[in-house]
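lol ok so funny story. i was supposed to be doing the assay writeup but got distracted and ended up predicting the structure for this chain instead. priorities right. anyway since i did it might as well share w the group, maybe its usefull for someone
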Amino acid sequence: MTEQVIGRVAGLWRYPVQSMQGEPLSVATLTETGIPGDRLWGVLNPAENKTAAAARGKTPWRNLIQWQARLKREPSAAEPLPPVMIRLPDGGTIDSEAADRDTLISAAIGAETRLVAHTAENQTYGYAPLHLLTSASLKAFTRHYPSGRFVAQRFRPNILIDCGETEGFIEQDWIGAALFLGESRLEVHEHCDRCILTTLPQGDLPLDPGILKTTSEINGRRAGVYAKVTVPGRVRVGDELRLVAPVSRSAA
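and the output, tada:
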């Protein structure tokens, strides 16, 4: 069995609150449930009695993608659900430890709602704890739609792999393969289908329906892959990603 170096980790992210922008990390310990602190919280959509999803819902829930969340402390055995700090587009902040947090969230959303904790029973992404994306895919999308800003922020991966000058949807060939990443070992098990969330404005990125249109037309809505952690371990920005399986690379 041979190992093939694919590239290096260019970015690590977790998303403490579902549908909100996440926080970049320089190092993370990958566990069987992914990156600790990822999607621990959500905002309730009372009409559906479940966590609001910016991709599925309409205004005001789509506005959640313009909010940014970061954990105030690292998760631990003593505190598996640490508090979160939310930054609003106008620069205001909401602290999950504050007594008036739900009042502030409701006012900012424009609808009655509250912050809710995700548990093993209602965890949305338990089946796919890690989303991997390569620069090779972003280059391929850009070639077909040069005016679109195909950046990691649009696609919300946990791990971005810099593959140098390589271009193409190389992740497609990783299904069923093993990956070594830092001290961890992963198993790729599913394609990642993208949705309207990739088109929504956030930060300095504008509304751009062409992002999803391009993703759909040239790669069947796929952007990256989902992976499970089979051997937990630490990963850092700059670590090599090594593929353990013979593959044939897909062209864009």
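The helical segments are 101-109, 135-144, 152-155, 210-219. Residues 41-117 form one domain.
back to the writeup now i swear
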